[in-house]
Amino acid sequence: MGFNPNIPQSTSKRAISQRQILINFQSIFQAMANNHSKLGLGTQGKHTVLILRDQTIPGDPTTSATQTAIYQKLVAGIPNWFYRPSSNQTPIQMSYPSIDITTANANYTFVAGPFVVYTGKITNPTNGQLVTLLPSTTLRYVGLTVANFTGTVVNSAAATNISGNSFNINFQVQSGVTRDVYYLAIGN
Asked: What residues contact residue 59 under an 8 Å CB cut-off, 6+ apart?
């Protein structure tokens, strides 16, 4: 037995509807705890995660003069998120697949005001590998970190030859182990 919005009725007897009222409150508590701070805390009801699901209606949502919309839709089969200004102004794509090395890599960009913020993971890159990020910008910062390595040597990596929207990955220690390189880059 789940949530029932028709309980209690004005004619309901408390003893009869009490069980369903308790189920309703438990259902609300459980639903609210999903991606929100739990009820009863000082931060109750605030989002901990925002999940944007596929739209059931194709295209972009309609916005009035007093509305804006943040939503996700598929671009070439890949979910990306968009912002639509008020009064049905032109939607702005906020995320992009940023590099295309292999399908094992997860890479995204985010347009933040005058800057483009790129984040991603490159699985088992080679020393000196060229990385080109999209959309094209002039990179101002590139930070790399190495994780999930095999072997006994902890590798570190640095971005070198930064030019336009590209950089090379240089390993400080080369031992033939496999690893993931995570990056954060900012361009404008």
From this structure: 73
Token readout for 52 is 């944007």
Give the tens place of pLDDT for each residue, 146-165: 887 776 665 678 999 999 99
Same domain for 82 and 106, yes or no, is: no
Residue 11: give the domain boundaries: 1-47
Q: How many CA atoms lie within 13 A of 13 on its CB side?
A: 2
Q: How far is CA 185 from CA 40, 72, 107, 140, 172, in A?
A: 39, 23, 11, 8, 19
- Highest average pLDDT, of 15-24, 77-86, 168-177, 179-188, comes from 179-188
Structural tokens at position 132? 């080109």
Which of 37, 69, 93 is the endpoint of a domain?
A: 93
Q: What is the pTM of this model?
A: 0.51
Domain count, the chain: 3
Distance of CA 97 to the CA centre of its chain: 12
